[in-house]
From TrEMBL:
InterPro entries membership: E3-bd_dom_sf, Lsr2_DNA-bd
Domain called Lsr2 DNA-binding: residue spans: 116-149
Protein name: Lsr2 DNA-binding domain-containing protein
Swiss-Prot/TrEMBL keywords: DNA-binding
Length: 159
């Protein structure tokens, strides 16, 4: 929950106070827009400039997904916010279209087993006392026997 109020100690500028730590970082698209220039934040009468710098730095470190945007005027801050919200709306619509398209996809059929290598066929042949050369092409008849044995589930060194 964010509230906005005028604070005399902060030079009369608007101060954004949040009731929960990290609420903005939990929102998919969030930003903090400051209606003052960066250097004016250090010209506060009742707060040391180093304290302001530490606060900004701590926020950026704790919530790296939430940018802090310094705008010189309220008009510029409103314009930036308007454009940010428009871009966020378009991004959300694109994500919804993508999610719907992903849900509509069918799962792929299971992959066929990898084709046998000559080394597997030679090993299978040697365990079944079939003579085959150490090099060169495997005879078609032997490869057919090997594939039939593989389909039956004869896995003795069959890969």
């Amino acid at each position: 929950m964010a509230t906005r109020r005028r604070d005399r100690r902060a030079g009369g500028g608007a101060v954004l106070r949040t009731t929960g730590r990290g609420e903005l970082s939990g929102i998919p698209r969030a930003a903090v827009v400051v209606e003052e220039g960066y250097s004016r934040g250090f010209k506060v009468d009742y707060v040391r400039p180093s304290l302001v710098a530490e606060g900004i730095t701590e926020c950026q470190i704790r919530f790296p997904n939430v940018p802090i945007i310094f705008c010189e005027t309220r008009k510029l801050a409103q314009e930036w916010t308007y454009r940010f919200l428009a871009a966020a709306r378009v991004g959300l619509a694109e994500e919804m279209v993508g999610a719907n398209a992903a849900r509509a996809l069918e799962s792929a059929p299971p992959l066929a087993p990898a084709p046998p290598t000559p080394a597997y066929a030679r090993r299978w042949a040697s365990t079944h006392d079939i003579v085959v050369s150490d090099r060169g092409r495997i005879p078609v008849a032997l490869m057919d026997q090997y594939l039939e044995a593989r389909a039956r589930g004869d896995t003795s060194t069959c890969s």
